[in-house]
């Protein structure tokens, strides 16, 4: 359904070109969730913005992005707009920056229906209120008439999800959809996404740094480091047996996944500067398992069905 | 001497709320009668969601905010009555680390000056001795001595938090309060800072209060846990006991909501925390509680018990709660492989 093939994204900066995403490939099927995981600057959000066509014009994009057989990079601006918000929708971390403060919650949800389904204002508002009810906003008719600043953070995030889902998108990109929310509200939002996925068969690309969210809600996982894919695996396989040393370090560093009470894995050094990344494997300077081979970039190599790792040393016993 | 590093008794703080014309129209009951004790060497976590009052409580505990009512005792000394001057001197014993070190470090001060400041305030060391101590502190938190002459903006978030920690421990305090000290950091950096904090707590025998919304972090470091909801403590006890058998319905909902326990079979708790301006009468959680009975909306439950305390009328009558599901799925292999990264650290 969605195929990301050797995607690269380069930004022009004052210091020269910066390749934020380098040779990233994965696929996503209907009714499935793929999680893009990694820490700040790993390229996960830039990847999702490239798919949505939301990168600035100055960004150079390489590789292929195809969605239901169509080449996303070849679409005209008009064709793009038709797709975005309808077939393809996105939810961001901070609803305040994506909701328009000058329109009510109901108007913003109804807008997508008017644009993509050509509904009248009245019919669109009726559907919008139904949608607000579906995302469990209490008293949806009253809330629909309120402006974003009158709503709590959790409520605003629900409005954004209602906006994204009202046209029954076939692909939903959720970029840290619950990161700013309290844990009980996060649980409500994630269970809502899971329910809608079951009902409508929407495919979800979940961008997150939270391994717990990944463990519960993803089917497949793409672990990214410094703009590249380190490991892709079915969720069960990744958590039972991470193979890339970065994935091992990341899980060993997460209090929820490390041995309780023990010392957390502490990955020495810092993420490389993408203006001048190290040659070969980008994790090599911080890796306790590496050897001479790591001076050369490792290819993605299959280990098992759907499980691939870019590491010369893997599999590690 | 009580033997406790910090004792809070009946702490209350309300913030007046005014309408558009400046007339008082109520109060945010941020902290509403909280008592807590922390022993030397003990890590007490205060957990709860935004607006529960946990950060306000942390500030009240060090008199960075003045309580309306209640007493604060630090190392057996009554802090509530101290003059501003005496309080300044007493602060050497109790320090704070914030979530955003940018907010606590003066951008115009070099790292050396920032760490030296508490030494000037609280010690009689000579300038040369102070500089020597600054270098020792930098080394202790894992920063190179050359960093001393640089400014906060030149550092990453994790390094800035190390600087804030060096400043906090400079006066050899007995108590440190960390308000979400690792919440803004990426997982791998968070691990480094948590390891450092746990080492310091052990070495210095610190009483540490960890204010956090991250129950994974709390599970990892806390000896005891206090759960707050709308300005009150609803449950308090040994961390192991609370995670194995959460008693209060709110604690149960909070723990059940932590991701990484298998896709939720149980429906997550409904609704959001009510406004602290008009908290519900009786038990403040009764509006969202699946077990609530008539009594819960009429009578405020007291925090009762010996080591594991609960403020719930139905405590002991509720069906047993599911324990918090640990998520160390990588097992022995992950611990063994992750240990390779520890060697890198040394």
TrEMBL record, chain B:
Keyword field: ATP-binding, Nucleotide-binding, Transport
GO MF term list: ATP binding; ATP hydrolysis activity
Gene3D superfamilies recorded: P-loop containing nucleotide triphosphate hydrolases (3.40.50.300)
One Gene Ontology term from the biological process aspect of the record: transmembrane transport
A cellular component term, taken from the record's GO annotations: plasma membrane
Localization (cell): Cell inner membrane
Keyword Transport: yes
Domain ABC transporter: 6-255
Listed InterPro entries: AAA+_ATPase, ABC_transp_ATP-bind, ABC_transporter-like_ATP-bd, ABC_transporter-like_CS, Oligopep_ABC_C, P-loop_NTPase
Membrane topology: Peripheral membrane protein
Coiled-coil regions listed in the entry: none
Main location: membrane
Keyword Transport: yes
Source domain of life: Bacteria
One Pfam family in the UniProt entry: oligo_HPY
Record PANTHER family: D,D-DIPEPTIDE TRANSPORT ATP-BINDING PROTEIN DDPF-RELATED, TRANSPORT ATP-BINDING PROTEIN
Family of the protein in this entry: Belongs to the ABC transporter superfamily.
Name used for this protein in its record: Dipeptide ABC transporter ATP-binding protein
